[in-house]
Amino acid sequence: MGRRELPLAADAGPIEAFADALRRLRVRAGTPSYRLLARKAGYSASALSAAASGAALPSLDVALAYAGACGGRRDEWEARWRVASAALALPGPTTPPAAAPGPPTRPGTNDDSTNADSADYGVAGDGEAGAVFRPLTSEDPRQAGAYRLRARIGVGGMGRVYLAYTPGGRALAVKVVRPELAEDTEFRRRFQREVAAARRVHGLFTAQVLDADTDGSQPWLATAYVPAPSLAEAIGSHGPLPVESMWLLVAGLAEAMQTVQAAGLVHRDLKPSNVLLAIDGPRLIDFGIARASDATQLTRTGIRIGSPQFMAPEHVLGKPLNFAADIFALGGLIGYAATGRGPFGDGVDAAVLYRVVHEEPELADVPGPLRELATACLDKDPGRRPDLARIIETCRTRSGATSLKVTGTWLPAAHTGLIRRRAAAVPPDQARRT
Ligand SMILES: Nc1ncnc2c1ncn2[C@@H]1O[C@H](COP(=O)(O)OP(=O)(O)OP(=O)(O)O)[C@@H](O)[C@H]1O
Ligand SMILES: [Mg+2]
What we know:
binds magnesium ion, 17 helices, globular
């Protein structure tokens, strides 16, 4: 296993280890005052300092707000929180995690782990990042169009993702846009346009957009549910991938990106939480729709959507974007998946964005031939980055195979175990009865 950014002390329990990681993140961000963090995070300074005190596991919302205000990556911290939460829930998956330290002060948010129903539901014995489905709380919508929402799958900058079923019983991931964004006229205009474009993407390696409501009071988007952990979760739980898996990951992603490109789209937000690791190869999700949130009132006032670590320099500088921006992000993903760390590091957004534009990527720990490919993808000049066909061909030749083949063992055993447990996870009974 490669290096982890914040290794857990051998004798630390999950709560103390999580708090320790939060404290270290704050130090890496230059030790901002809790008052400053509170302003950025939208939670009181006391809620944030309690989160890092180690007295209890903070709610997911508080933890993400704390980490986000210190420049931590949402997907990474959600995965980390899930690991701690699932560890607390051991030995059985239905034991609720410890209560959160005091109520958050941010209006309209939901303090998950104070809720008595906030147990994590994976499958029995899944004691890692196994919190697949969480029961709906009073703050969650029950319906999106004709779809009854059954359980919560995850939370991102744009909204929350829920499990639902088609009338024929196929599982869907329904992303319900957060209310603040839904009220933003510019967001809505772009969301309508981008969802229409994303519906044109048809491919085996992308999660198909199946339905959407971009006009209603609570916009939503339904895609095919992929029973797989995200790359962020897999790397967060079981560490970086070996080179053999990396060639298949990169070639598979490049193939998925070809479908997005063929539809005339730029993904714009290719990052570890938007890659799902399925047993038959990687799947790309959330293509195109990140554009809806660019330059909205909310992103201007500090709500983070997208991830600076994987943003191309031309994107950071507000220049026109083409598909080469996604190639840059792919280069960042190569570094992340091979080492557990993005090539432009962590920290406050401004520092990461500065490094993206002005500094060379940190790829020293990436194994040789992969490093060459990542370096080429991360060229500051979009015109010099390789195209997708060349990337796939490089993966094939460098892997030493006459042809690439994804089999059920394309990932190391620990990661495969995570995928299998994920595929076997069932939503909470309580939600099924509704
Ligand atoms: N189609 C899907 N199938 C299975 N899981 C999904 C699907 N779509 C989303 N998810 C899960 O929901 C989580 C949250 O997704 P979401 O896109 O809201 O967050 P994000 O990618 O971290 O942030 P952002 O809002 O910036 O995209 C993902 O990490 C993934 O685990
Ligand atoms: Mg996403």
